[in-house]
C-alpha cells in the first residue's frame, strides 16, 4: 500500500462528500426560495411544454448567451461540450467492463480535452483583455478558470507527455468505489491532476459553478407566460390572501 | 450549518474505511497470460508506460529509414508474449495485449495489418 493511495482515497471521499452534500443543500435552498412574481423574460412560451423546450435550448445551446455575446458563447460552448466528451472518456476508469459507447467515444475525449482548454483560454483572455470585463472580474472568476485550465492542461500533458500507469489508476478508482484501498501509481502530473479535481469538487458548492443546477431554478426562464389565464400565487402569499378581509 | 473539525471528519472516514475494508469486493484487474515471457528488452514498468511510443518510433525507423533489427519491435513482443494456448496476443481478456487494452478501453490498431501470432508459428515451426 502506498501513502499516495491512502491520501488520495481519503481526499476523494472527503471531496465526494462535500460535493454531493453541498450540492444537495444548495438545491434544497434554491427549491425553497420564494418566487413571488410572474417574471418570465418575454417573448416566453405560453405552455409548460414550451417551457421545457425553452429550458432545453438554454441548457444545451446556451440560447440567451448566443443572443447576448457571440464570442463568449463560442468559447463557452467549446469548454462545456469539450468537458462532456472528457467526462465520457474518463468513465472508463470507473466501469468494468467499459460500456461500449464509452469505449467508442475514447478518441473524441482527447479532442474534447483540446476544445475544453481552448474554450477556457478564450474565456480567460476575455477576462483579462476586455477592459470592462476585467473591471468587474473578481479573484474567484479568475480562480475557476485557472483551476479548470490546470485540470485540462495536466490531463493533456499526461496524454502527450508522460503517461501514467492507467491500468493502476483504474484499479485505484474501481477499488475506491468499493471502499477497497489500492495503490496509486507514481506520477507527478497525475497527482497534480487529481489534486486539482478534488479542489474543484470541494469548492463547487460554494462557487459560481452553481449556475449548473441554478439555471433550472431561474424564474425568468422556467415560468410559463400565462398570468391572465392562471393567477400566479406563491404558497406563502396564498396564506396571507385567506387571512386578509376581502373588499 | 455547524461543521465538525476537518480532522475529526477525516478520522471518522478512516475508521469507516477500516471497517468496510474486509467487506470490500475484489477489485477487477487484468490477469495476463504472458506466454513464454522471460527477460524483457527493457524494464517492464518502463515498457508498460512507453511501449506505444517505442513501437511508433520503430515504425518510423523501419518504414522511413529501412532500419531493421533494433532493440524494440512489435514482432519481438508477439514472439515472447503470445499465449501458449491460442498462440496469439489477442483472443481473450487474458491475452497479453488484449487484457489491458480492453480494461483501459484503448483500441489496438496494430493487428489490423500485423500478425498477432509469433514468427515461428507463421514459419510453420513447432510451438513450444
CATH topology of chain A: Fumarate Reductase Cytochrome B subunit
The Cα radius of gyration of chain A reads: 22 Å
**Share in helix of chain A:** over 70%
Query: How would a textbook summarize the main sheet of chain A?
Result: none
How many strands, which pairing sense, and closed or not: the largest β-sheet of chain B?
none
Compute the CA-based radius of gyration of chain B.
22 Å
Based on secondary structure, the structural category of chain A is: mainly alpha
Give the termini distance of chain A in whole angstroms: 77 Å
- The helix fraction of chain B, in percent, is 40-55%
Which architecture of chain A per CATH? Up-down Bundle
Low-confidence stretches of chain B: none
The number of distinct structural domains of chain A comes to: 1
- What is the overall pLDDT average of chain B? 83
Largest interface (CB < 8 Å): A-B, 29 and 28 residues
Q: Tell me the overall shape of chain A.
A: globular
**What is the H/E order of chain A?**
HHHHHHHHHHHHH
Oligomer kind:
heterodimer
CATH superfamily of chain A: Transmembrane di-heme cytochromes, Chain C
Strand content of chain B: under 5%
Could you characterize what this model shows?
The complex is a heterodimer of chains A (247) and B (128). Chain A has 247 residues and is mainly alpha-helical. Chain A has one domain (3-243): Up-down Bundle (Fumarate Reductase Cytochrome B subunit), CATH 1.20.950. Chain A is 70% helix and 0% strand. Chain B has 128 residues and is mainly α. Chain B contains five helices and no strands. Chain B has helices at 6-20, 44-65, 74-81, 96-103, 119-122. Chain B starts with 5 loop residues before the first helix and ends in a 6-residue tail after the last helix. The mean pLDDT of chain B is 83. Chains A and B meet through helix 1 and helix 9 of A and helix 1, helix 2 and helix 4 of B.
Amino acid at each position: 500500500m502506498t501513502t499516495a493511495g491512502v491520501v488520495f482515497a481519503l481526499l476523494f471521499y472527503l471531496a465526494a462528500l462535500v460535493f454531493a452534500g453541498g450540492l444537495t443543500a444548495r438545491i434544497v435552498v434554491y427549491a425553497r426560495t420564494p418566487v413571488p412574481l410572474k417574471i418570465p423574460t418575454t417573448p416566453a412560451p405560453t405552455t409548460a411544454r414550451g417551457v421545457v423546450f425553452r429550458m432545453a435550448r438554454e441548457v444545451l445551446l446556451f440560447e440567451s448567451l448566443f443572443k447576448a455575446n457571440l464570442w463568449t458563447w463560442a468559447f463557452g460552448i467549446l469548454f462545456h461540450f469539450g468537458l462532456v466528451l472528457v467526462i465520457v472518456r474518463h468513465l472508463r476508469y470507473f466501469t468494468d467492463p467499459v460500456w461500449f459507447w464509452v469505449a467508442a467515444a475514447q478518441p473524441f475525449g482527447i479532442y474534447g480535452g483540446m476544445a475544453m482548454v481552448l474554450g477556457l483560454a478564450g474565456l480567460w483572455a476575455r477576462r483579462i483583455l476586455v477592459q470592462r470585463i476585467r473591471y468587474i472580474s473578481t479573484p474567484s472568476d479568475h480562480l475557476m478558470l485557472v483551476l479548470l485550465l490546470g485540470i485540462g492542461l495536466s490531463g493533456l500533458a499526461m496524454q502527450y507527455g508522460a503517461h501514467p500507469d492507467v491500468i493502476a489508476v483504474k484499479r485505484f478508482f474501481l477499488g475506491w468505489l468499493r471502499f477497497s484501498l489500492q495503490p496509486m501509481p507514481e506520477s507527478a502530473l497525475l497527482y497534480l491532476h487529481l489534486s486539482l479535481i478534488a479542489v474543484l469538487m470541494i469548492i463547487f458548492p460554494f462557487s459560481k459553478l452553481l449556475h449548473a443546477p441554478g439555471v433550472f431554478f431561474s424564474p425568468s426562464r422556467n415560468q410559463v407566460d400565462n398570468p391572465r389565464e392562471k393567477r400566479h400565487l406563491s404558497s406563502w402569499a396564498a396564506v396571507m390572501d385567506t387571512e386578509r378581509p376581502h373588499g | 450549518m455547524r461543521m465538525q473539525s476537518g480532522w475529526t471528519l477525516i478520522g471518522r472516514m478512516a475508521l469507516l474505511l477500516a471497517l468496510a475494508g474486509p467487506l470490500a469486493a475484489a477489485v477487477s484487474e487484468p490477469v495476463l497470460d504472458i506466454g513464454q515471457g522471460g527477460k524483457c528488452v527493457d524494464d517492464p514498468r518502463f515498457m508498460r508506460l512507453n511501449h506505444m511510443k517505442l513501437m511508433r518510433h520503430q515504425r518510423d525507423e523501419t518504414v522511413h529509414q529501412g532500419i531493421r533489427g533494433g532493440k524494440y519491435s512489435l514482432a519481438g513482443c508477439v514472439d515472447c508474449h503470445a499465449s501458449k494456448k491460442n498462440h496469439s496476443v489477442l483472443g481473450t481478456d487474458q491475452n497479453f495485449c488484449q487484457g489491458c487494452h480492453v480494461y483501459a478501453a484503448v483500441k489496438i490498431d496494430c493487428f489490423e495489418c500485423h500478425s498477432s501470432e509469433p514468427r515461428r508459428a507463421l514459419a510453420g515451426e513447432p510451438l513450444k
